């Protein structure tokens, strides 16, 4: 069982708290290059420093900003690998999957499924409402964006999935309660971690329904599939395709994408449609393809501590 992968006698509860702090501090250190670049520009041009995140995201060249933001996730990923391998004494695979090896076919299936959906729906929106988009394609800028995105965005999304759906899911599971507890806790924390996103300021706290709902969806497919592979593919496709295809003044990623949305976000379309309609359809597709059974046990059953160590 995936949630029991970290159950070793020396793997104490406090280690998850300390490990999380180590990863967080590494991400803070990774933000120093961005702060230096922003400070250098403000001094050079005699301007005041950005006062909010929206202003910060557009203060430097968009490609440079994206690179420097994603760099902090690279620092954090290195720290996370150290925490799992050396601090917890686990094989890194154990926070990814319960299978003997990572199932790349699952990752690619989820990636192409969600990536195709995003591409098709974006194209449909553009051709049905062209006045709500601005074509901003610039080959040289897009080429740089593509290289940055294809290298660093999978690091960012993989880190987030392995922390929330792997590391913390297993950490909360060690409390020996029902599986519903780590599922809900990691989903709520995942949502709270997005509070600083510009979308929250634009749409208000209602957007948390989407963030927490997405966390629940990713947690469910992780528990049902006994691994994070599907979540890894979905999250990578979501951020990568979005960064390359379309941006807006209120999105977390400000990029030299192909399109720029000029429309205002709609609560029903942005928040409710994915959680109420699209995610359940994806759950059905995954469940049929991978023959998921025993939903109640896998999602709400009690976490029984193993009697032997797992390596």
Automatic annotation (TrEMBL):
InterPro entries: Rce1/LyrA-like_dom (IPR003675)
GO terms under biological process: CAAX-box protein maturation
Organism domain of life: Bacteria
Residue ranges of the TM segments: 16-40, 60-84, 107-127, 139-159, 180-197, 203-223, 230-247, 267-286
A GO molecular-function annotation: endopeptidase activity
Short name of any one Pfam family annotated for the protein: Rce1-like
Record bears the keyword Transmembrane helix: yes
Keywords on record: Membrane, Transmembrane, Transmembrane helix
CAAX prenyl protease 2/Lysostaphin resistance protein A-like domain residues: 143-241
Record keyword Membrane present: yes
The protein's name: CAAX prenyl protease 2/Lysostaphin resistance protein A-like domain-containing protein
Lineage: Bacteria, Pseudomonadati, Bacteroidota, Flavobacteriia, Flavobacteriales
């Amino acid at each position: 069982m995936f949630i029991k992968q970290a159950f070793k006698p020396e793997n104490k509860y406090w280690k998850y708290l300390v490990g999380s702090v180590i990863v967080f501090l590494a991400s803070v250190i990774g933000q120093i290059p961005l702060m230096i670049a922003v400070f250098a520009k403000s001094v050079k041009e005699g301007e005041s420093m950005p006062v909010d995140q929206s202003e910060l995201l557009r203060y430097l060249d968009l490609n440079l900003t994206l690179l420097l933001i994603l760099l902090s996730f690279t620092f954090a990923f290195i720290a996370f690998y150290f925490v799992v391998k050396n601090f917890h004494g686990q094989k890194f695979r154990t926070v990814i999957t319960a299978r003997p090896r990572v199932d790349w076919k699952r990752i690619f299936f989820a990636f192409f499924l969600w990536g195709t959906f995003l591409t098709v729906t974006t194209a449909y929106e553009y051709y049905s409402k062209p006045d709500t988009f601005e074509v901003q394609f610039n080959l040289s800028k897009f080429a740089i964006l593509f290289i940055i995105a294809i290298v660093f965005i999978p690091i960012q999304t993989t880190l987030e999935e392995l922390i929330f759906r792997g590391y913390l899911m297993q950490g909360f599971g060690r409390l020996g309660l029902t599986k519903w507890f780590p599922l809900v806790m990691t989903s709520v924390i995942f949502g709270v971690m997005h509070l600083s996103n510009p979308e929250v300021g634009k749409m208000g706290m209602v957007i948390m329904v989407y963030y927490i709902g997405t966390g629940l969806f990713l947690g469910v497919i992780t528990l049902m599939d006994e691994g994070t592979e599907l979540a890894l593919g979905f999250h990578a496709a979501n951020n990568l395709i979005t960064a390359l295809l379309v941006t807006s003044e209120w999105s977390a990623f400000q990029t030299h994408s192909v399109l720029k949305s000029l429309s205002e976000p709609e609560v029903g379309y942005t928040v409710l449609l994915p959680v109420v309609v699209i995610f359940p359809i994806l759950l059905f597709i995954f469940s049929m393809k991978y023959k998921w059974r025993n939903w109640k046990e896998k999602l709400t059953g009690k976490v029984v501590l193993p009697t032997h160590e797992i390596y």
